[in-house]
Write a structure and sequence with these properties.
Layout: H1 2-30, E1 35-51, E2 54-69, H2 87-113, E3 118-127, E4 142-146, E5 149-150, H3 154-161, E6 167-174, E7 177-185, E8 201-207, H4 210-237, H5 248-261, H6 265-286, H7 295-312, H8 318-349
Antiparallel strand pairs: 1-2, 3-8, 4-5, 4-6, 6-7
Helix pairs in contact: 1-2, 1-5, 1-6, 2-4, 2-6, 2-7, 4-6, 5-6, 5-8
Length: 350
């Protein structure tokens, strides 16, 4: 089954990139920008067909793809070139790729959650006998945040309560309104007849209605976004090494390993696509970082350029922005090569 999981991982990774480029393509077409080519895959073309003004190609390496728009990083006399469009149109086109990745992640989660009959929710269902928190907290309270951290899933509560000591600022939703407990002291206690310490209340289940499913899909997506930002914070702080970062090779291996470790085939597919949803949202967030060559870097320079043009009253030559992105692309490719080399070394060390 390992070969099957690897194939699924490669196809999944390819789909994520194609969906991203399809977002740019669709937005460009809707905004009236000339698209010279839309390619699925990389390398030499296997099939290439022209429809209207756009070449559509299927290329031999089944990972990646691209949407080549007229005048992306150079001055063009074509009024439909990307650089000749208003700033708001260019912004929509640049953001569309990451938006599509995010929506794909949500769609995968929604499909995985579709058969669910109920979800555990961060809502107090009952208290243990003699629980000291019964009073300030009430049955039916939904935990909204702990120390400013949103509680998206029931397990978030314990994660954030176990940090920074026993005193916390807690916000709950009670009777449709937010209720705040400032400097509220709460710690795990040992209750009669039990062997493990706990907070003394239990979370309940919610019937998986359409609204509850949508809320859980959204909350899971937001949880994924938080994990990405937490990972970036760990990297910047030095708690995580660059050697711990995985590229396409490492991600494919991770997905295949996830499938192999599952107890059954159905669990394997569930885990693989759950991880796939996280990767899709990860790509959406990472690609919007303000780094040259990434869409986020293009958006950042677009805003800066638009502000400068507003001040000086004339259009800047787009070739200079192209130089910045070209330099960023060289550095990005070098970094990706380093990550890929590390991923291959990890495979041989297993």
């Amino acid at each position: 089954m390992t070969a099957v999981y690897i194939l699924i991982a490669i196809l999944l990774f390819g789909v994520l990139i194609v969906v991203h480029e399809a977002g740019h393509f669709t937005a460009a077409k809707l905004c009236g920008v000339r698209v010279n080519e839309f390619a699925v895959g990389m390398g030499p073309a296997i099939i290439k067909r022209k429809k209207g003004e756009t070449d559509y190609s299927l290329r031999c390496i089944p990972i990646g793809g691209y949407c080549a728009m007229a005048g992306e990083d150079e001055e063009s006399e074509d009024p439909r070139a990307f650089t000749n469009q208003p700033a708001w149109k260019r912004l929509i086109i640049l953001v569309a790729g990451s938006l599509m990745n995010f929506l794909l992640g949500m769609l995968i989660i929604a499909i995985l959650f579709a058969p669910a009959q109920a979800f555990i929710s961060p809502v107090i269902a009952s208290f243990a006998d003699n629980c000291p928190y019964d009073g300030p907290l009430q049955v039916g309270d939904r935990f909204y945040s702990v120390d400013g951290h949103r509680i998206y899933q029931y397990y978030d509560f314990t994660d954030y309560m176990d940090k920074n000591g026993p005193v916390h600022d807690i916000v709950v939703i009670r009777d449709g309104h937010r209720f705040k407990l400032d400097d509220f002291s709460m710690e795990k206690l040992l209750y009669e007849g039990e062997t493990q310490k706990r907070y003394g209340f239990s979370f309940g289940y919610e019937e998986a209605t359409f609204t509850v499913k949508f809320r859980n899909v959204w909350n899971t997506s937001m949880e994924f976004v938080r994990w990405v930002w937490a990972g970036l914070a760990e990297l910047v702080s030095g708690n995580v090494s660059v050697n711990d970062i995985s590229g396409p090779v490492g991600i494919v291996d991770m997905i295949a390993e996830t499938g192999e470790q599952a107890e059954s085939t159905s669990d394997a597919f569930y885990s693989i696509f759950y991880l796939g949803a996280f990767i899709a949202i990860n790509l959406a967030v990472m690609n919007m970082l303000p780094i040259p060559a990434l869409d986020g870097g293009r958006v950042f320079l677009l805003i800066v350029t638009a502000a400068i043009e507003k001040i000086i009253g004339k259009k800047l030559d787009p070739k200079y922005e192209g130089y910045i992105h070209a330099a960023g692309m060289v550095l990005l490719l070098a970094f990706m090569a380093f990550i890929m080399f590390n991923d291959v070394l990890k495979l041989f060390r297993k």
